[in-house]
Specification:
alpha+beta; SH3 type barrels; Alpha-Beta Plaits; five-stranded antiparallel beta sheet; three-stranded antiparallel beta sheet; 8 strands; 55% helix; 20% strand
Length: 266
């Protein structure tokens, strides 16, 4: 019996080596995919400064099992394909695996795109927790970054939930990424005649009373337009908190209005 076994090994040595390499390669590829997914999950959790929720962990584990199952399925098909008697079955498994892979890829396209978007956000950090941003005309504070979505608290206390893919693909204004300071412009219309040189320092003094202004940057006033009946001016001021834009503009308008009313400039 031993001579027959040796003879079989000699005749099928290359076949057995191929099968062994496919088997080892399948195990290694499955292990690499598993390690990469678990590693990315830990990286995202570390970047966010919090543990991933049960919902996200379940979703990641499901994707991991699907990918590893597909790898093993293709590995078995490749091994069967090496044997003449099982080659037809291996080819059928390859065909079904290709169809299954296409179906899974189409079905999971959006979810995977959002997951990869979450990984990119955690790595390149176009936005961070606490940043004040504007996306598609909506302004708010980044409250939470999950594996699939970004939660933004708007100025009127609503929650805007945006898929990570949209965050990556859309232009974003991040008011906080380098410096939170932002320049505001307020245009006012006054009666003409108007002594611009006389009233300018008095208006600036009034504007500087606002507590949100940057102390190191002096407010400025420019002449925008005028005619025989009215004059339009623009007040430019730097504020320290972009989340207070609407509040500061309202406060300055109200304060300057009271001043103008008192001086009969309106």
């Amino acid at each position: 019996m031993w001579p027959k076994f040796v003879d079989y090994l000699n005749q099928n040595l290359f076949l057995l080596v191929r099968v062994g390499l496919i088997f080892i390669g399948t195990l290694l590829l499955a292990k690499i995919v598993s390690v990469l997914i678990v590693g990315n999950m830990r990286l995202i959790s570390k970047k966010l400064g919090r543990r991933l929720t049960i919902k996200h962990i379940t979703r990641i584990k499901l994707i991991k099992r699907l990918l590893i199952g597909l790898i093993y399925f293709i590995g078995i098909a490749a091994i069967l394909y090496q044997f003449e008697s099982a080659r037809r079955l291996g080819a059928m498994m390859f065909a079904s695996a290709s169809i299954l892979g296409i179906i899974v890829a189409i079905a999971a396209q959006t979810s995977l795109a959002n997951i990869f978007g979450g990984i990119l956000i955690s790595l390149i950090q176009p936005i961070r927790l606490g940043d004040f941003i504007e996306i598609e005309g909506q302004k708010g504070t980044v409250e939470e970054i999950t594996l699939t979505s970004v939660y933004i608290k708007t100025l009127d206390n609503r929650r805007l939930i945006i898929p990570n893919k949209k965050i990556i693909d859309s232009p974003i204004i991040n008011y906080s990424i380098i410096s939170p300071e932002i320049l505001i412009q307020i245009e006012l219309t006054l009666k003409n005649p108007f002594d611009f040189d006389h009233w300018r320092p008095l208006i600036i003094k009034r504007v500087k009373r606002n507590k949100y202004l940057v102390p190191e940057k002096e407010p400025e006033i420019y002449l925008v337009d005028f005619d025989s009946e009215k004059i339009k001016i623009a007040i430019l001021a730097w504020i320290v908190n972009p989340q207070k834009i609407e509040e500061v503009i309202s406060q300055i308008k109200e304060d300057v209005y009271k001043f103008f009313k008192k001086e009969k400039l309106l």
